[in-house]
Design goal:
One of its GO terms (molecular function) is serine-type endopeptidase activity. It comes from Adineta ricciae. It holds the Pfam family Trypsin. The chain has helices spanning 111-116, 191-200, and strands spanning 2-3, 10-12, 25-27, 29-34, 52-56, 83-88, 103-109, 124-129, 143-151, 157-170, 181-186. By secondary structure, the chain is mostly beta strands. The strands form three sheets. The protein has a six-stranded antiparallel beta sheet. A three-stranded antiparallel beta sheet has the order 1-4-5, with helices on one face. A two-stranded antiparallel ribbon has the order 2-3. The protein has two helices and eleven strands; from the N terminus they run E-E-E-E-E-E-E-H-E-E-E-E-H. It is 8% helix and 33% strand. It folds into two domains: 2-66 and 192-200, Thrombin, subunit H (Beta Barrel), CATH 2.40.10.10; 83-189, Beta Barrel (Thrombin, subunit H). The chain is globular, with a radius of gyration of 17 Å.
Length: 201
């Protein structure tokens, strides 16, 4: 299903929420598509297939401030203990205002976190903070990234960022304690739908 893009602007390379810089680029969307199986029900503590895609009117120029995250394959899964990273402009504490500059968090992938949140690991990627930073209100939709490298023919390592999740929700919102559970919609689980939409539009 297609949704209206009226009033939507996407700020690329934008770092400080209340100021502008010469590094930012404002993109306009012409398509906004929500996953057809997206659901939130009272019987389920987490949204399922919590993904949407936006097609831009024109390509975005890449720069030192604007880059690309690669998509995983359907078979790609993150093992327990793998390190992943997220960042966002959400609230730092309950009831506070959104932060001006993005807060970053390092998470360890944890199937136990999915069990604690009572959600299906096939549809979600779960992680726990080992430094007290977690996703919060206002961070929904941000990515969960890992950095992976492969050897090239000249034996150099080609490092790339891959997006494995999209922030969906967390337990004990804005908790600053270690081992806080965070849930992300799984990108690899819905990668076939993502490619279908890309090919169609």
């Amino acid at each position: 299903r297609l949704y209206s893009t009226s009033g939507i602007s996407l700020y690329m390379g934008h770092y400080n929420r209340v100021s502008t810089s010469q590094n930012e680029y404002i993109a306009r969307p012409n398509l906004y598509i929500i996953h057809p199986e997206f659901r939130i029900t009272r019987s389920k503590p987490a949204p399922v297939h919590d993904l949407a895609l936006i097609k831009l009117e024109k390509p975005v120029p890449l720069s030192q401030s604007i880059g690309i995250a690669c998509l995983p394959n359907r078979a790609d899964k993150l093992a327990d203990g793998a390190l992943a990273f997220t960042a966002g402009w959400g609230h730092a504490t309950p009831g506070s205002s959104a932060v001006n500059e993005p807060r970053k968090a390092r998470l360890k992938i944890s199937s136990k976190a999915c069990r604690q949140l009572m959600i299906d690991r096939r549809l979600h990627v779960c992680g726990r903070s080992d430094r007290g930073n977690n996703i919060c209100s206002g961070d929904s939709g941000t990515g969960l990234w890992i950095r992976a490298g492969s050897k090239s023919n000249d034996h150099q390592t080609d490092w790339r960022w891959y997006i494995f999740g999209v922030a969906s929700f967390g337990l004990d919102e804005c908790s600053q304690r270690v081992n806080h559970d965070n849930a992300f919609a799984s990108v690899s689980t819905d990668i076939d739908w993502i490619h279908d939409v890309i090919n169609k539009y």
